[in-house]
Design brief:
about 140 residues; about 0% strand; mainly alpha; 7 helices
């Protein structure tokens, strides 16, 4: 079996695991329709990017479900596959914020700002998150 075939099988299995009932987003979190992702072409051309985007979505859902420990593990995997996706850092910051760890939340918020600087909608969210982190630091 070729590596490409194994990657396709892994992606199909991952997608099957991620299928579930959609839940309404928590207030302040973007809905799936509002999510900005890497282009579909990039995901099609690069299985690592495609897998990372699936993990990002799973991590977002875990944050919405208020399961920060699991979200952190999933989002760290997403970052390892595609470190340029700023949404991973935003959601990692959210998970650490939920846990009450301002230092870690601040680090990931800063990374999110670096990677999402060209997206004005995400920059609003990142700035609001930075404000919540600052409140936690007080």
């Amino acid at each position: 079996m070729t590596i490409k075939a194994m990657q396709i099988i892994c992606l199909a299995l991952l997608a099957a695991l991620l299928v579930g009932c959609p839940k309404p987003p928590l207030e302040g979190y973007p809905s799936e329709a509002e999510e900005t992702t890497t282009s579909a072409e990039a995901a099609e051309d690069n299985p690592r990017v495609a897998a990372s985007l699936q993990l990002t979505d799973q991590g977002r859902r875990l944050v919405e479900d208020r399961r920060p420990d699991r979200a952190i593990r999933v989002l760290e995997q997403a970052v390892s596959l595609h470190p340029g996706n700023g949404q991973n850092y935003y959601y990692l910051s959210e998970a650490w914020l939920m846990k009450g760890f301002a230092d870690q939340a601040k680090e990931f918020n800063q990374l999110a700002e670096i990677h999402l600087k060209d997206d004005s909608q995400w920059m609003i969210r990142v700035a609001e998150q930075a404000d919540r982190i600052a409140e936690l630091e007080k």
